[in-house]
């Protein structure tokens, strides 16, 4: 069965068509600038050149129509008709406490996703727009919602509660939810396989290091703590997000700089992290690494702070699990940057972590990069959130057919 995986943002829509049997990607692409002038569709098939089509996409329905037309078209199509697409899997950012696993989408589920919108006001409404558009254009095709937060619903109370009045949790569900769950689940499972161990006996720390970055403690296959919080702002220093900081700073900035709450939140989300630390040099770690290697202080302080914070979380989660068997690196930076892995692992000598320098230089595939005598295995596991969503979608649709 072919599964269409959709990741719908406010002005973009990423898609992948995956064959559930072979687990191969058949085609993928992105619709950019939806609802904005200059919208275009970028489309790729393995073995073919990228196709870029400039076309007006005034809303997500038009974007999905474009995707369907391209997938079924005579020029670059990969399916004969829409009926060949057996199901659609939607990436949904926030499932609140309501969703601890993926679920088939019906009106009740859509209403529940809508209720979670106050926890993710930028993401969930956009995700729902994608669901509604697919529903109109492919009314007969089953759809599944796969939540970024679901994997972390196993966290115990002591890990998810904040030290604020308990009534805030009771009345408004203010708590840690965590994100990147699909990636943390996929990577921890793959890591166990690469280690040749059963995941139910392993203590793993998964570092998902991309523009957005989070660390998760995965004990015996379950998330027991994670660095992102009620929103994806908490935890690590990220590309443009600040991560952990003293909450009182917000009031201090408001007074000193005369900025509104919305303006400050914008700065913390979009102008902070390594971009802010590097004095605006870049949020892209490739630029920062180049500056670091040239000995420029902007690059040095940004990367050092990033690596230090990440290592601190690995230490904290080792304590939370009372030990660690494997540390996994994934996502753009985690998979591709030997320098960052080395900087982070440089703090972990007390755990008996030792890197194999030659292995650590390799990239692009699943690898053990720790040396033979390392007490803790260090792994690079390329994430594949789309495949994980396609697997969940296929599983649920198959179950529903039985
Ligand atoms: P997201 O999905 O959160 O947007 P990605 O997982 O695609 O992010 O990761 C993007 C980050 O990975 C960027 O900061 C980019 O600089 C970094 N990255 C990608 N390739 C490399 C590389 N070869 N060396 C260092 N950093 C890299």
Question: Can you put this structure into words, describing what you see?
Answer:
The protein is an alpha/beta fold. It is built from 15 helices and 14 strands. The strands form two sheets. Strands 5-4-3-2-1-6-8-7 form an eight-stranded mixed sheet, with helices on both faces. A six-stranded mixed sheet has the order 11-10-9-12-14-13, sandwiched between helices. Helix 11 packs across helix 13 (338-345). The protein is globular and about 60 Å long. It binds adenosine-5'-diphosphate (ADP). Adenosine-5'-diphosphate (ADP) is lined by residues 210-212, 239, 284-286, 289, 331-333, 336-337.
Structural features:
alpha/beta, 15 helices, 19% strand, binds adenosine-5'-diphosphate
Describe the structure concisely for a colleague:
The protein is α/β, with parallel strands linked by helices and 402 residues long. The protein contains 15 helices and 14 strands.
Helix and strand layout, with pairings?
Layout: E1 2-8, E2 13-19, E3 25-32, E4 40-44, E5 51-54, H1 60-72, E6 85-92, E7 103-104, H2 107-115, H3 124-137, E8 143-147, H4 157-160, H5 166-172, H6 181-195, E9 203-209, E10 213-219, E11 222-226, H7 248-257, H8 261-270, H9 273-277, H10 285-293, H11 297-321, E12 326-330, H12 331-336, H13 338-345, H14 357-360, E13 367-368, E14 377-380, H15 385-401
Parallel strand pairs: 1-6, 6-8, 9-12, 12-14
Antiparallel strand pairs: 1-2, 2-3, 3-4, 4-5, 7-8, 9-10, 10-11, 13-14
Helix pairs in contact: 1-3, 10-11, 11-13
The structure holds adenosine-5'-diphosphate.
Adenosine-5'-diphosphate is lined by residues 210-212, 239, 284-286, 289, 331-333, 336-337.
């Amino acid at each position: 069965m072919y599964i269409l995986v959709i990741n719908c943002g406010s002005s973009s829509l990423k898609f992948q068509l995956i064959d559930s049997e072979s687990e191969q990607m058949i085609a993928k692409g992105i619709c950019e600038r939806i609802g904005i002038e200059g919208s275009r569709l970028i489309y790729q098939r393995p073995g073919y050149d990228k196709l870029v089509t400039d076309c007006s996409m005034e809303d997500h329905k038009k974007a999905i129509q474009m995707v369907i037309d391209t997938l079924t078209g005579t020029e670059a199509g990969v399916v004969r008709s829409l009926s060949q697409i057996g199901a659609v899997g939607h990436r949904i950012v926030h499932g609140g406490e309501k969703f601890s696993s993926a679920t088939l989408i019906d009106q009740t589920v859509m209403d529940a996703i809508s209720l979670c919108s106050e926890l993710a006001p930028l993401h969930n409404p956009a995700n729902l727009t994608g669901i509604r558009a697919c529903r109109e254009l492919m009314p007969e095709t089953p759809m599944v919602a796969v939540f970024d937060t679901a994997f972390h619903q196993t966290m115990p109370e002591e890990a998810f509660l904040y030290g604020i009045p308990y009534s805030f949790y009771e009345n408004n569900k203010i708590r840690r939810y965590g994100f990147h769950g699909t990636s943390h689940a996929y990577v921890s499972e793959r890591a166990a396989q690469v280690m040749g161990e059963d995941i139910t006996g392993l203590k793993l720390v998964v570092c998902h290091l991309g523009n957005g970055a989070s660390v998760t403690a995965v004990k015996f296959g379950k998330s027991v703590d994670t660095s992102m919080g009620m929103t994806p702002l908490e935890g690590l220093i990220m590309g443009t997000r600040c991560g952990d900081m003293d909450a009182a700073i917000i009031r201090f900035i408001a007074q000193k700089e005369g900025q509104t709450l919305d303006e400050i939140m914008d700065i913390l989300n979009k102008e902070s992290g390594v971009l802010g630390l590097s004095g605006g040099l870049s949020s892209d770690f490739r630029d920062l690494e180049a500056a670091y290697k040239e000995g420029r202080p902007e690059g040095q302080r940004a990367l050092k702070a990033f690596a230090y914070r990440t290592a601190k979380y690995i230490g904290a989660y080792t304590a939370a699990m009372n030990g660690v068997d494997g540390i996994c690196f994934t996502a753009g930076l985690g998979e591709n940057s030997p320098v960052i892995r080395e900087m982070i692992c440089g703090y972990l000598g007390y755990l008996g972590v030792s890197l194999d320098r030659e292995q650590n230089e390799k990239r692009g595939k699943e690898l053990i990069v720790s040396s033979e005598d390392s007490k803790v295995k260090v792994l690079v596991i390329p994430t594949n959130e789309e495949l994980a969503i396609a697997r969940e979608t296929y599983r649920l649709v198959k179950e529903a057919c039985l």
